[in-house]
DNA sequence: ATGGGCACCTGGCTGC
DNA sequence: TGCAGCCAGGTGCCCA
C-alpha cells in the first residue's frame, strides 16, 4: 500500500498524538508479521515515553526514552490512534495503549509489514543502513542519479524503485514520475541523457511533494492516522488508467509488466 | 556487481 | 452460489 507520501502522512498524523505519551500496555494478537515479533517485544515497549516520530524511506521511527520502534506498513498496513475502547478489527495485530486514553493500533491484512524495537542508532539497523538517499533531500539530485544510472541496463522504472538507488518511490509514483518527466518506463537507465535524468529527478520530487500535500493516494485500503483517505488519486495521470484517455493527449493509457509489477504509461507522451 | 524471479500473505473482483 | 484464477501502495533473499 503505502509509498513515501502515505508513510509521511501517517507520520505527521501520529506525531501530535504520540509525542510525550507514555506506553501503558502492549498487546500482540498476531506475532507473525514480515518478521516474527520476539517474546521480548511487549516488555521492551511497556512503560516507555514516546519522543520524536520520524521517517526513513518507508519506515516509521517512533522514538522512545529507551529505543526506537521501527515500523514498516508493507502493502496493506496502517497505523491509527483510536479511543482505547474502540472495537477491534480483524487484522489488528498490535495494540499499543497510551496514557492519553487512546491506543495505537497496527492493522495489516497481508502481514507484509513489520515492527522492530531497536536500541542505539536506528540508522545502523540492518534494514536501514544500506538505504539510498531520501528523494526529497538536496543530496538526491541530477548529479547523483546520473552517476547511479551509468552502466545500468535495467529499465528506468525498475531502477527508481530500487531502494539502493533512491528510497520511497513505489509502484504508483514510479509510473507517475516517468509520465511527468515524459520518459518511457522501458528506457535502459544507463541510456538516459543528463538532461533526461534531470527531468526525472525533478519529476520525482514534484510528484512526491504534491502527494504529501494532499495526504497521499488511497486506491483501496490506505488510511492515515485519523482513518481518513488521501486525495492524490484524482491527480494521477496514468496509474490504474489503462485504456482511458491520457489526460494530456487523449491517447489510451497502456499497461505492461516490469519486474513482476504493473507499469502504466502514455505511449505518445513518453519517449 | 547486476539482473531476474520467488516468496511471504489476505481479500476483492472476474468469469465460468 | 461457488470456486478457481488473477491482481494488489513492498522488499529480502536466492540464483545465474
Structure at a glance:
By secondary structure, the chain is of the alpha+beta class. It has 6 helices and 10 strands, in the order αβαβββββββααααββ. It has helices at 4-18, 41-45, 142-149, 156-160, 171-180, 194-213; strands at residues 23-28, 50-56, 59-64, 67-72, 78-83, 92-98, 102-107, 114-118, 254-258, 261-265.
CATH class of the largest domain: Mainly Alpha
- CATH topology category name of the largest domain: Helicase, Ruva Protein, domain 3
Mean pLDDT: 97
Biggest sheet: strand arrangement: 1-6-7-5
Element pattern in H and E: HEHEEEEEEEHHHHEE
What features would you describe in this structure?
A four-stranded antiparallel beta sheet has the order 1-6-7-5. Strands 2-3-4-8 form a four-stranded antiparallel beta sheet. 23% of the residues lie in helices and 22% in strands. Helix 5 packs across helix 6. By secondary structure, it is an alpha+beta fold. The chain is built from six helices and ten strands. The structure holds a DNA duplex (16 and 16 nucleotides).
How would you describe this structure in keywords?
alpha+beta, N-terminal domain of MutM-like DNA repair proteins, four-stranded antiparallel sheet, 23% helix
Question: How is the secondary structure organized here?
Answer:
Layout: H1 4-18, E1 23-28, H2 41-45, E2 50-56, E3 59-64, E4 67-72, E5 78-83, E6 92-98, E7 102-107, E8 114-118, H3 142-149, H4 156-160, H5 171-180, H6 194-213, E9 254-258, E10 261-265
Antiparallel strand pairs: 1-6, 2-3, 3-4, 4-8, 5-7, 6-7, 9-10
Helix pairs in contact: 1-6, 3-6, 5-6
The structure holds a DNA duplex (16 and 16 nucleotides).
